[in-house]
């Protein structure tokens, strides 16, 4: 079971780094008036496990932090991600 958690932690780390980079790219594009990343792609990255990187980017870069509809979907992706480790733990001990 430890391997599962370590693999999951590695997955979250890699996806978080990628997601932070995509948020940075999108913030830079917004500043310079260039091509932007679609919001659904940002949400997909968060849903796939990059939510910690997205959370950091939203705070450190102050990007995508004001729009209520974006924030709602973001927090739903966080909730979905947090249920996975709980479900794994519950399945192990339940």
TrEMBL record:
Pfam family, one: DUF1294
Spans traversing the lipid bilayer: 7-24, 44-61, 73-91
Key words of the record: Membrane, Transmembrane, Transmembrane helix
Keyword Membrane tagged: yes
Domain of life: Bacteria
InterPro entries given in the database record: DUF1294
Listed name of the protein: Cold-shock protein
